[in-house]
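Next up, a specimen:

>
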Amino acid sequence: MGVDVDPAFVQSPEHRPDPTVVEASGIPQIDLSPLLDSPILDSGDASPQALSDLLAEVDAACRDWGFFQVINHGVPSELVERVEAAARVFFAMPAEEKRTVRRDEVNPLGYYEAEHTKNVRDWKEVFDFVVEEPAVIPSPAEHAGVGVGGLIELWNQWPKYPAEFR
């Protein structure tokens, strides 16, 4: 009575986590209140030490864990709840609906379900977007250091449903 799992999701033994280690405590929490409480956003006169300390925390969390939880960010909880609800509706939709806004080689913004880590497909779906449009980035050729490709503009791809996801 086994379960068949697509081999694309199976990591080789040397990349699997140790099943005897059950440690999820200690996930870094980054407190952004110094940014909100400081005049750095208005005048640039914030204590360089406070900013340096915050950047060091983010750097350590990224280096040591690969992720972190942000607290005291100033985003109203009602907005967070609305965004989470819209995301749940979007990700519960059939795959063919989500793929209508799938990212590709030309536009890296939108839905994607086939990321890989250590040559194994991640068991996740993502939706990449930018806050301010257009996002202007170096062209892939320039970014790779091959020739001069100039800049390209990226625009979000939003699904028609749910409208709140936008």
In short: The longest helix spans residues 48-64.
